[in-house]
Request: fold
Amino acid sequence: MLAGDPSVESPVECAESSISVHSFSHMGLHFHVTKMIQSFLIWIGSEEANIDSISTAICIPPAPASASLLTGSQEWCSSLSKRLSLRTHHQVFVFSDVLDPDDVGVAEKIIFSKLKQSPEMFLTLDDGA
Reply:
């Protein structure tokens, strides 16, 4: 039989899922965290999911590198992704709805507080992080 022959069945193994999803709300803000292996994505908004800005950062010594993937009006996303990456040593993706300037500081405090209280929601803990 030839390689690639569609009549030949190859064994398919299912991989364990390494993605988990967590959502929470606090003070009128909504957060959606998707945890992956050594990375996480966090969406922050005040209403239904509507993405205005996307930034990512990865912790590479001496300082985290970040990039804006969708440049909206939320410049703080890049700064937040850098700080989260530096704190967690994970790649971090920050998605944001348009937030009022007063909500930005509140959102950041909530995220860092939740990270401290429930690190398993964000981090792959078995990698030493």
Residues 45 and 68 are 18 Å apart (CA to CA). The first strand starts at residue 20 and ends at 26.
